[in-house]
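pasting for ref
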Amino acid sequence: MKVTQEVLPDSQVGLQIEIPSELSQRTYDQVLNKLMSTTTIPGFRKGKVPKPIFLQRIGVTQFKATVVQELLETAIQTAIKQEEITAIGNYQLRSSFDELVAQYQPGQTLTVSASVDVPPRVTLKQYQGLSLQAEEVLPDPERVNRTLATYQNQRATLVPMEDRPAQMGDAVVIDFVGKVANEDGDLEEFSGGSGADFSLDLEPGRFIPGFIEGIVGMNLEESKDLDLAFPEDYGHADLAGKAVIFSITLKEVKEKELPELDDDFAQEVSEFPTIEELRTSLVDQYAEEASERTKTNQHTALLKALVANLEAEIPETLVQQETDFLVRQTLSQVSQQGLDLGKFLTQDLVEGMRKEARPNAIERLKRTLALGEVAKQEAISVTPEELQTKFDQTLADLEDPDQYDLQRLRQVLEEELLQDKLLTWLLTANTLELVPEGSLEPEPASNLESETSVKSDVVPPTVSSDEEE
């Protein structure tokens, strides 16, 4: 079969294929025999219909279209194999299908034009000797104390207070009604803005500014209106920046009696026999977390630099595959949260998610291609022994290995091991300066997660809170 190749943009190869007359005739005969033996025509037994009548009944043009479709599949796949082309995904027909049907005559040659995606053509201009910066994350010296305070708070004894006003640090129960102005300027309640017997801790910064502070100083059964405002960056756009009046009634005030930070406390909240061992464990844990975040920042800086030095034409097939993977991943995460996808998932939403995910998909592909080029240039790979050791360790940690696709698991582990090797090598091959946390420009976040998240109606709205271990 005569095949002429053409290099096209976006890692495509164009194919001009001259389909020989014998393949044209053979395909025609095969399709005709198959259809005549399986098509029922009144007045004739299957396989006994005269050819002219058969063609008249099903239509000559429709039959030729069926033959041409079969011929294209055979010819293009044969050409790909003959030319030893590593094709990604299905072919794209560049010729007009209708014109091919009109031109086709059994036993005559037919010239068709198609294209196929091929692995990206990659050039990595530089991947070593680079001077980069990454933020160093240091452990927060107060985090251990905050964690222990959280443990204390969770195990506090609540003592009812009837002879004093509410104080910062108390646990209270309130009724509240929130109202905002509508388009006419009248105050009206809003969804999620009211609650009865609502329990909360009077801790700074937990709700919108002024809410907690307004409750401090109130007496039992006292009612009070708080004139406040939602933050400009509040998550519910219809409330952001709006003035709000919360009408509050204080129903219960309880003082927290915290347990002592002693060995008995340590044994109650952890597996450690002494409070000092618990403190040491938390110090080590948070130091390790800070080190891992620093390492992640270093890896991110390296990958960003590689992508900046990458020249690659990424075929649309790969972009679509990666985009679909990200969308499926997001939908899986939403489903695992217990949400019924069928209630809000529409074709328009999925298409919107694909649009949002596409830039991230391209960026991920670029990182993969850049790392792959480093592995190729430096002959870095994972040995069978390394992979088997990691595989056995992972299997030992799984409760029920039979529930997993072990072949896919092995593939994922190999990819992880190779990436770790490559990033470790890149750290030694480049100069990476650690700078204080927060001193570099933050990376823009993807909108995919925010677009597919389901908003909560919990009010009073939280604007900041300490971490809870």
